[in-house]
Amino acid sequence: MYKFITPLLLGLAGLFGLQGAAQAQATPQVKAVYHINTDVNTVPAILNNIRNHMSADPKAKIVVVTHGAGINFLLQDAKDSQGREFSGAVSDLAGKGVDFRVCNNTLTVRNINPDRLLMETKIVPSGVAEVARLQAHEGYVYLKP
Description:
Layout: H1 2-25, E1 31-36, H2 43-56, E2 61-66, H3 87-95, E3 99-103, H4 104-109, E4 121-124, H5 127-138, E5 141-143
Parallel strand pairs: 1-2, 1-5, 2-3, 3-4
């Protein structure tokens, strides 16, 4: 009798092992929206968080949504108080699939010409509405670093 139980148990263990592997492969992609509405001096740490996120999970889909003072780092020639520029970091992250979205309401209220934005950006009608849409309709998790 034991001769039959052992192969049966091994077969079941193999079957469940295969199911576990299939479930691991079917894990949905993590989608995160980083909400930035703070000044340029907070941005180096935020970009570092995004780099760390991408290093830990290269398949993650990351969208950065900006409004208010948060758009400033996405303007051409933007620098923080230590003279650090952002265009290289933004370009590098965009090359890895990170999307950068800018609030049109902010551009309008502040009378900023969209031509001043880095080429990696996309304008959305409203930053806060975009954050809500991504969460409600596209399953993004909200991160406010």
